[in-house]
Design goal:
alpha+beta, Uridine Diphospho-n-acetylenolpyruvylglucosamine Reductase, domain 3, Alpha-Beta Plaits, 3 domains, about 20% helix, about 25% strand, globular, binds flavin-adenine dinucleotide
Length: about 425
């Protein structure tokens, strides 16, 4: 079997791949001895989904979305991708509050790793989960709703509690978004008025490269109202559509220039119709409490000489606090410092370790699906419920059938 992740930096070691099409199929698989790991759309850069046993592809667990208008929720098969879900919701006049940068990722895979978009008032994609159904090792089905004792632990689960078969998400009536891009905002201006900048629209992303210019190359704003955002420093709007990578055609990007359009065609940066099956890049991301954001960006700025030769682009995003134990925004509004790197893994890992050290004073949490060198003690220091989560995994999975080397830090806690 030769199966790799989207970036091609993880070659899965699995002996076999299972393709369940129903909850019963998943129960039958999880009645076996393991080891197992669920695999969503394979967009993680870390070894989180790897196993030398059975990889359980969730692509066939794609039950069509069922909307409950009264509770304003939608229930979907765990393997469905956000783009497909978004189209089905829009057809019925509904929307999700946010999307990640691309709509090709599976709902359960994104939720399991605390995936997020940007927006001061918007939570991570995981925070939209209202209920989930999972099959635990041994084959029993467990259903959890918001408010149940284990719920806050079981949403951002790292796939360590069971295989999620369906997910219920909060929805709202469909809405329009206007996307505008502004260019060349001096970094010092951005940092001097960081809260005003990040709060200037429903969703704001800053793109920069840490080079000599010391500018935020692009500010991407997504607004739900017609008025253009008022940005500190008043940077100039881009003259035409742009890609966040210098010199790359914007054809893959969602419409810009303030033209109003449906939420599902604007909240992600990349169009669903543009399907990058593989990417010549690596990613890392660290998320810091909002109050530390400016100091954390300045600390990373000190490493500009080390970062610049390997960076494709950095994206800075914000999100609202939530109560999910392993969320990047657990009990704090958070700001994510994301890095899209050139695909030179040894060199990138060395710089990521330096960034991690520079961000240590700011309680930085690494993204579960991206590159990080943080050990068990480091993770426990930034996720206060991590030891309780580790104990819960032993309850749900006493024989460790869902463990893999990536998750071995849970056994050190
Ligand atoms: C080009 C690109 C852009 C990205 N943009 C963003 C972004 O904007 N914001 C952001 O936060 N992240 C981003 N990511 C990271 C990505 O969202 C996460 O890695 C996410 O986990 C990918 O979802 P997936 O379905 O591919 O999960 P996979 O990589 O397949 O799996 C991730 C984890 O989820 C578990 N899992 C999957 N399905 C299930 C299930 N049914 N039950 C239990 N566990 C399950 C797996 O076991 C594994 O542990 C990006 C990645 C790429 C490649």
């Amino acid at each position: 079997m030769d199966l790799v992740n989207w970036a091609g930096n993880v070659r899965f070691r699995a002996e076999r791949i299972a393709t369940p099409a129903s909850v019963d199929d998943v129960c039958a698989i999880l009645s076996g001895p393991g080891p197992f790991r669920a695999l969503g759309s394979g967009h993680s850069f870390s070894l989180i989904a790897d196993t030398d046993g059975t990889l359980i592809s969730t692509a066939g667990l794609a039950a069509a979305p069922v909307v409950d208008a009264q509770s304003r929720t939608v229930t979907v098969g765990a393997g469905i991708r956000y783009g497909e879900l978004a189209r089905a919701l829009e057809a019925e006049g509904w929307a999700l509050a946010n999307l990640a940068s691309l709509p090709h990722i599976s709902v359960a895979g994104a939720v399991a790793t605390g995936t997020h978009g940007s927006g001061d008032a918007v939570g991570t994609l995981s925070s939209a989960v209202a209920a989930l159904e999972l099959v635990v090792p041994g084959g029993d089905v467990v259903r959890l709703r918001r408010g149940d004792p284990a719920f806050d632990a079981a949403v951002v689960s790292l796939g360590a509690l069971g295989v999620v078969t369906s997910i219920t998400l909060d929805i709202e009536p469909s809405f329009e978004v206007r996307q505008r891009v502004y260019e060349n905002l001096p970094l010092e201006t951005a940092l001097a008025d960081f809260d005003a900048l990040m709060g200037a629209a429903y969703s704001v992303s800053l793109f920069l490269r840490w080079g000599d210019r010391d500018v935020v190359d692009q500010v991407w704003t997504k607004s739900r109202s017609a008025e253009p955002p008022v940005l500190p420093g008043d940077p100039a709007p881009a003259a035409g559509p742009v890609h966040m990578l210098a010199g790359v055609s914007p054809a893959a990007c969602t419409p810009q220039l303030g033209e109003p359009g449906r939420w599902l065609d604007r909240l992600a940066h990349f169009r669903l119709s543009h399907t990058p099956s593989a990417g010549a890049e690596l990613q890392s991301e660290h998320l810091v409490p909002r109050r530390h954001a400016v100091a954390a960006i300045r600390a990373v700025r000190e490493l500009a000489d080390r970062i610049a030769p390997l960076i494709q682009v950095t994206e800075i995003r914000s999100m609202r606090a939530d109560s999910l134990w392993l969320s990047p925004a657990y009990e704090t509004d958070a700001v994510g410092l994301h890095f899209t790197w050139l695909p030179d893994q040894p060199a990138v890992e060395a710089v990521v370790a330096e960034i991690e050290a520079a961000l240590a004073p700011f309680q930085a949490r690494p993204h579960w699906g991206k590159l990080s060198a943080m050990d068990a003690a480091g993770r426990a220091a930034v996720w206060p419920r991590l030891r309780e989560f580790a104990a819960l995994t032993r309850e749900f999975d006493p024989e460790g059938r869902l463990r893999n080397p990536y998750l071995s830090f849970l056994d050190e806690l």
